[in-house]
TrEMBL record:
GO terms for cellular component: outer membrane-bounded periplasmic space. GO terms for molecular function: penicillin binding; peptidoglycan glycosyltransferase activity; serine-type D-Ala-D-Ala carboxypeptidase activity. Residues 1-14 have a biased composition (Basic and acidic residues). It catalyses: [GlcNAc-(1->4)-Mur2Ac(oyl-L-Ala-gamma-D-Glu-L-Lys-D-Ala-D-Ala)](n)-di-trans,octa-cis-undecaprenyl diphosphate + beta-D-GlcNAc-(1->4)-Mur2Ac(oyl-L-Ala-gamma-D-Glu-L-Lys-D-Ala-D-Ala)-di-trans,octa-cis-undecaprenyl diphosphate = [GlcNAc-(1->4)-Mur2Ac(oyl-L-Ala-gamma-D-Glu-L-Lys-D-Ala-D-Ala)](n+1)-di-trans,octa-cis-undecaprenyl diphosphate + di-trans,octa-cis-undecaprenyl diphosphate + H(+); Preferential cleavage: (Ac)2-L-Lys-D-Ala-|-D-Ala. Also transpeptidation of peptidyl-alanyl moieties that are N-acyl substituents of D-alanine. Residues 105-273 form the Glycosyl transferase family domain. Residues 731-743 have a biased composition (Pro residues). This is Penicillin-binding protein. The chain crosses the membrane at residues 54-76. Keywords: Carboxypeptidase, Cell shape, Cell wall biogenesis/degradation, Glycosyltransferase, Hydrolase, Membrane, Multifunctional enzyme, Peptidoglycan synthesis, Protease, Transferase, Transmembrane, Transmembrane helix. GO terms for biological process: cell wall organization; peptidoglycan biosynthetic process; proteolysis; regulation of cell shape. InterPro entries: Beta-lactam/transpept-like, Glyco_trans_51, Glycosyltr_51/Transpeptidase, Lysozyme-like_dom_sf, PBP_transglycosylase, PCN-bd_Tpept.
Length: 777
C-alpha cells in the first residue's frame, strides 16, 4: 500500500509528467469537438459591435417599427370632419390696440366629382399626384425625399399624396407637428381601404384652398373666372391646379411680378398631362395662359383694410413667423405697427391732392393708381400704408407691387455708392457733390476711354453742359448719373442698393448694367421707403416691420429678430442727405417745402410717364409716394399724360404734394428737427455753383488723352471762363436702326426670368443697358 495519500495506483518512478487535463481544449486552436475556435477580440476592435449584435439590433428595430405601425393602425381611427369650415377669424389691431380688421369668413360650395370636367380633374392630378389612382395612400419614399430636400435647403416640400392632403384638410388641421403627421399617415392608410379613390378626389377638390378666400374648386372657379366649375376649360383648370402649390404667390392679379413663376408652374401642369397621355401634344400647343379676372375683396376688408391685412399676412409668412395654412386656420390676434392717426393722414392726403381731382370724363383718369408707405427711421416700423382707392375695387397693393420702374429716385443710391466706395471719375477725380460732370443731352458714356453704347436722353432732350453733382441731382440730369454709374461700377451700385434695402432679386436690378443708374429696376414703394429711411437714419438700418405682436390662445408667437446694422457709412448717408436737401430747397421737389420742416428728397418719373414718384424724409419720418398708370381692364401699364387735367404727371407734382400734406399732418405737434450731418471729405458746399459752366471731368468730356484734369482725390473747381467742349462724340458701336415695338402687350410686366432679369421690351440693349430711352426727372 502506498503511503502517498494522493496516489492509489501503482507506484510511479522518475519525474512527474504534466500535461493537459483530459477535458481541456486542444492547444492547436480547435475546439474540443474539432471546430476552429473564434479568436478573442482585442484592442480597438472591442469598441465596435459584432455583426451578430448589429443584426440583432436591426431585427429589434424592425420589430419595434412593425409593432408601432400595427399599434398606430389599430389605435388611430378616422375622426369626424374637422372644423375648418368654422375657422376662427384673425383679428388685426392698430398699434394703439384699436381694431383694424377681422378676416376668416370661409367661402366654400361643395360639388360632386361629376360636376368637375375630366380634364380639370386630371390637371389637379398632374399638379399634385400623378399616380393617385395606382399608388397607395402614402408614399414613404416621397416623404423621406421631401424631408431630405427640406433639411438640405432645396425648398419646403410635403411629400404627401392627395389622400394625405385630403386627410389634413378635411379631418385634421394645418399645424406642422409630428403628432399631426403621424395621425395623417395612419388615417390615410385606413381611408384608402374604406373609401374609394373617386370619393377621396372629390373630397380633396372640395376642401383645398385656392387663394382669394376660396375653398374648393367651385368657389375657386367663381373667384378667378366668374363661372361654375363645370364650365372651366382645360387651361383654366390647369391654372387653378397651379394655385394649389402657392395660392397667394401665384395669383397673378394680386402679384403681377410673379406671373412668370405662375406661368412656369402652369406649363408644368399641362406638360404633365401630356406625359400621362391625358392631353395630346396638338391640344397642348394651342393653349395660352388664361389670365384670371380681377379679385373681389372678402366682406369686411374694403377700403384700406384689405391692403393692410394682405401686407401683414405676407410679412408673417415671408418671415416664416407662421405658414399660410396655419394662419388661414385663424385664431390669431395681430397687433400691427400701423399708426391710426398717420394712416388716416396718408389716406386724406392722397384723396385731397389726387383722387378728388380725377374726372370720369377723362379716360386717362381711370388709369390712375397710387401707392404710399411711411417708416419711422429709428425703429423701422411701417406707420402708414396706402394701397389703392379700395381693396374691393383695386386688388393689387400699390405700396407692395414690384412691377413699375422707380426712375430717378434711384439716383441718390448711385451717389451714395460713389461716396461709400470712394469712387472716382474716369480721370481719377474723387466723386463729391462738387465734382463737375457733362450734362449734355444724349452724351455717350465712357468706360476706360471707350464709348459704352449707352447714351440716354435728358428730360425733354435738354442739354445742361458742365454741372456739379449737386446741380445734376437738383435738375435730375440723366447724363450725369449715367456716367457716374459707370464710374462707380454697376455691380457696386447694385450691392449698395441691396445693402440699403432693395431685394437682390428685384426685376432688372442685376442685368441692366449702366441703365441701373436711371431707375430701370422695379422695387416696390415699400422697398424704396426702406432705402430712404436708411438715409434718414445716417446709414443705420433696422429691417422694416409691419407687426408688433402676434398671439394665439393667449400665447405670444415669436417674431423675427431685427437687429440694427450699418447699411452704408454715416458719411455716405449724410452726404447724400445734404445733396437731397437741395432738391427740396431749389430743385424739382420744391412742393415738398409745404410740409414746413427741414426735408430731403428726390423726384422720379418712369419711362413714358407711366409712373411718378417722390421719396422724401425728415429726421423723424421717411415716406415714398407713387402715382401709377394701369389700364383697369387689361392691367397693362399706361402713360399718365393728361391725368388730373395736367399735361403730364411728374414726381414734383402730385407725389410731392401728397408727401407734404401727409408729413405735415403726421408730425403735427412734434418739434421740427434739423438734420445732424457728418459729411465726407470734400463734400462741403462750394461758395458758388456753376450753372452751365465749369470744367467737366474727363469722364464727362470724353478726353482721349487720359491725363487727369484734377489730381486724384480732389474736386474740380470751376474756371473763370467756359471751356471748349469736344465738337464730336466718340464713335459708337454698331447698333440696330429699327425702333422696337411701342405697343404694350396685354398683361405683360417687366419681371425676372429664373436666374436673371429682363428689361421692358421697349428698350434696346447695349453692353451697358438701354439706349435712347428717355427717363424723366
Amino acid at each position: 500500500m502506498s503511503h502517498d495519500p494522493q496516489h492509489d495506483g501503482p507506484e510511479r518512478t522518475g519525474s512527474r509528467k504534466w500535461g493537459p487535463r483530459p477535458d481541456a481544449p486542444p492547444t492547436d486552436g480547435r475546439s474540443a469537438k474539432g471546430r476552429k475556435s473564434r479568436p478573442r477580440r482585442t484592442g480597438w476592435r472591442r469598441l465596435f459591435p459584432t455583426w451578430r449584435m448589429l443584426f440583432g439590433a436591426l431585427l429589434l428595430f424592425l420589430l419595434v417599427v412593425a409593432g408601432g405601425l400595427i399599434a398606430g393602425y389599430l389605435l388611430v381611427n378616422i375622426p369626424a370632419a374637422n372644423t375648418a369650415a368654422k375657422a376662427q377669424s384673425n383679428v388685426y389691431l392698430y398699434s394703439d390696440g384699436s381694431e383694424l380688421a377681422r378676416d376668416g369668413d370661409v367661402n366654400r360650395e361643395n360639388v360632386s366629382l361629376a360636376q368637375v370636367p375630366k380634364t380639370v380633374q386630371q390637371a389637379v392630378l398632374a399638379a399634385e399626384d400623378r399616380d393617385f389612382y395606382s399608388e397607395s395612400a402614402v408614399d414613404p419614399a416621397a416623404m423621406v425625399r421631401a424631408a431630405w430636400n427640406t433639411v438640405t435647403g432645396k425648398g419646403k416640400q410635403s411629400g404627401s399624396t392627395i389622400t394625405q392632403q385630403y386627410v389634413k384638410n378635411y379631418y385634421l388641421g394645418q399645424e406642422q407637428t409630428l403628432t399631426r403627421k403621424a395621425k395623417e399617415f395612419f388615417i390615410a392608410i385606413k381611408l384608402d381601404r374604406e373609401v374609394s379613390k373617386h370619393d377621396i378626389l372629390e373630397g380633396y377638390l372640395n376642401s383645398s384652398y385656392y387663394g382669394r378666400n376660396a375653398y374648393g374648386i367651385q368657389a375657386a372657379a367663381q373667384a378667378y373666372y366668374g363661372k361654375n366649375c363645370d364650365q372651366l376649360t382645360t387651361a383654366q383648370g390647369a391654372y387653378l391646379a397651379t394655385l394649389l402649390n402657392a395660392p397667394s404667390a401665384y395669383d397673378v392679379a394680386a402679384h403681377p411680378e410673379n406671373k412668370q413663376r405662375a406661368v412656369a408652374r402652369w406649363d408644368y401642369v399641362l406638360d404633365g398631362m401630356v406625359k400621362q397621355k391625358w392631353l395630346s401634344e396638338s391640344q397642348r400647343s394651342t393653349m395660352t395662359f388664361p389670365a384670371p379676372g380681377p379679385a373681389r375683396a372678402p366682406t369686411g376688408l374694403s377700403g384700406q383694410r384689405g391692403y393692410l391685412v394682405k401686407a401683414v399676412n405676407d410679412y408673417l409668412t415671408d418671415n416664416k413667423v407662421v405658414d399660410e395654412d396655419t394662419l388661414r386656420a385663424g385664431g390669431y390676434r395681430i397687433t400691427t405697427t400701423i399708426d391710426r392717426k398717420r394712416q388716416d393722414a396718408l389716406v386724406a392726403a392722397v384723396d385731397s391732392r389726387l383722387m378728388d381731382k380725377l374726372s370720369d370724363a377723362r379716360t386717362v383718369d381711370s388709369y390712375v393708381r397710387a401707392g404710399g408707405a411711411s417708416i419711422d427711421p429709428a425703429s423701422g416700423k411701417v406707420v402708414a400704408m396706402y394701397g389703392g382707392i379700395d381693396y374691393a375695387k383695386q386688388y393689387v397693393n400699390g405700396a407692395t407691387r414690384r412691377d413699375y420702374q422707380v426712375g430717378s429716385i434711384f439716383k441718390p443710391i448711385v451717389f451714395a455708392s460713389a461716396v461709400q466706395n470712394g469712387s472716382t471719375t474716369q480721370d481719377g477725380v474723387r466723386i463729391t457733390p462738387n465734382t463737375v460732370y457733362d450734362g449734355t443731352n444724349k452724351r455717350m458714356t465712357v468706360s476706360n476711354g471707350s464709348p459704352t453704347g449707352f447714351d440716354p436722353a435728358n428730360e425733354d432732350d435738354r442739354s445742361y453742359g458742365p454741372v456739379t453733382v449737386s446741380a445734376g441731382m437738383d435738375k435730375s440730369i440723366n447724363a450725369v448719373f449715367a456716367q457716374m454709374g459707370i464710374d462707380v461700377g454697376p455691380a457696386k451700385v447694385k450691392n449698395t442698393a441691396v445693402d440699403l434695402g432693395i431685394p437682390k432679386d428685384t426685376p432688372s436690378l442685376g442685368s441692366s448694367q449702366g441703365a441701373i443708374s436711371l431707375g430701370t429696376a422695379t422695387p416696390s414703394v415699400l422697398d424704396m421707403t426702406q432705402v430712404y429711411a436708411t438715409f434718414a437714419n445716417h446709414g443705420k438700418q433696422r429691417p422694416y416691420s409691419l407687426v408688433d405682436k402676434v398671439s394665439r390662445l393667449g400665447e405670444d408667437v415669436q417674431l423675427p429678430d431685427r437687429p440694427e446694422g450699418i447699411a452704408i457709412g454715416r458719411d455716405a448717408a449724410d452726404t447724400t442727405t445734404s445733396v437731397l436737401r437741395g432738391v427740396v430747397e431749389g430743385g424739382t421737389a420744391t412742393a415738398a417745402q409745404a410740409a414746413g420742416r427741414p426735408a430731403a428728397g428726390k423726384t422720379g418719373t418712369a419711362e413714358k410717364d407711366k409712373a411718378a414718384w417722390f421719396a422724401g424724409y425728415t429726421p423723424d419720418l421717411a415716406t415714398v409716394v407713387a402715382v401709377l398708370g394701369q389700364h383697369p381692364q387689361t392691367a397693362a401699364q399706361e402713360p399718365l399724360y393728361g391725368a388730373g387735367g395736367q399735361d403730364r404727371v411728374n414726381g414734383g407734382g402730385y407725389p410731392a404734394e401728397i408727401w407734404a400734406d401727409y408729413t405735415a399732418a403726421a408730425l403735427r405737434g412734434q418739434p421740427a428737427r434739423d438734420f445732424d450731418l457728418q459729411l465726407a471729405s470734400g463734400a462741403e458746399q462750394q461758395s458758388s455753383e456753376p450753372s452751365g459752366t465749369g470744367t467737366p471731368s474727363a469722364s464727362a468730356s470724353a478726353s482721349s488723352s487720359g491725363t487727369p484734369s484734377t489730381p486724384p482725390g480732389t474736386t474740380a473747381t470751376p474756371p473763370t471762363e467756359a471751356p471748349t467742349l469736344p465738337t464730336a462724340e466718340p464713335s459708337t458701336p454698331p447698333f440696330p436702326t429699327e425702333q422696337p415695338p411701342t405697343a404694350e402687350p396685354t398683361e405683360e410686366f417687366p419681371t425676372a426670368e429664373p436666374g436673371g432679369d429682363t428689361v421692358p421690351q421697349t428698350y434696346r440693349m447695349s453692353p451697358w443697358g438701354v439706349r435712347g430711352a428717355a427717363w424723366d426727372e
